[in-house]
Amino acid sequence: MRPEQIEAAKAQRPAIYVACGSVEWHGYHNPVGLDTLKAHEQLVGLAGRLGGLVYPPIFLGAGGGHTRWPSSFMVSAEPMMRVVADLLHGFERDGYRKVILLSGHYPNQREYMLPAATLYRDEGGTIDVLSLIENQAPGVAGDHAAKYETSFMLYLCPNLVDLGRLRVGPQDDIAGPDQVVNWMGEAYEGHPCYGLVGIDPRAYASAQVGQDNTERLLAYLAAWLDA
Q1: Lowest-pLDDT range, 91-95, 101-105, 116-120, 167-171?
Q2: Which of the residues 63, 66, 172, 217 has an alpha carbon 20 to 30 A from that of 74?
């Protein structure tokens, strides 16, 4: 956006939204940047409905123990705390009154997002900051690349999901609709759900599930913005 466009949008609603995520393994069928893409698209939807501005997404994750996986990269939490706190100070200087920090990578919340918000407050910051992961909103579910994250992507970025990859290999071990399975072990390498934790996406992921959960998340964020 050009400066005049930013100022006009900020004048209507002085709120800014930041997606934090990671680049890490999310199964054979999902992009490695799923966490960040998911949160970013959700915030774009929020801005489209209620106004405010969406900051460029932060593809940096901390914690979670995924560094042994291909194309999976984590950073130290301490410098991220400083980066996010500095962003919050910058948003305040620029005239924003509310900030949403939404992380698609769940460990970011405890590793650097909440500590950054506390650091910002301790340094005299005064604007309202909501820091959360999606499944902290009422009625919103989450997992690691299984039913729910795959469903979010089928709704938000369907062109980036290859459901055909889930249908390669064994299909006779699909569990029940409420059974959480951990496919993280090396014994599952090559299995269509290798690296996932959650309900089996082969049978239970859908764009409708992703839309329903996104709608509940956006309703929660909207209520906070309007409070």
Answers
A1: 167-171
A2: 217
What is the DSSP code string of 79-97? HHHHHHHHHHHHHHHTT--
Cα 115 from Cα 128, distance rounded (Å): 15
Nearest CA to 219 out of 101, 123, 137 is that of 137
Q: How far is CA 181 from CA 54, 125, 177, 198, 227, in A?
A: 35, 42, 11, 5, 39
**pTM metric for this prediction:** 0.96
Residue 68 has pLDDT above 90, yes or no: no
Confidence of residue 170 (pLDDT cuts 50, 70, 90): confident
Report the pLDDT averaged over residues 111-127: 98
Each residue of 75-87: b (16+ CB within 10 Å) or e?
A: eebeebbeebbeb
Burial (0-12, 13-18, 19+ Cβ within 10 Å), 30? buried
Domains present along the chain, CATH in parentheses:
3-226 (3.40.50.10310)
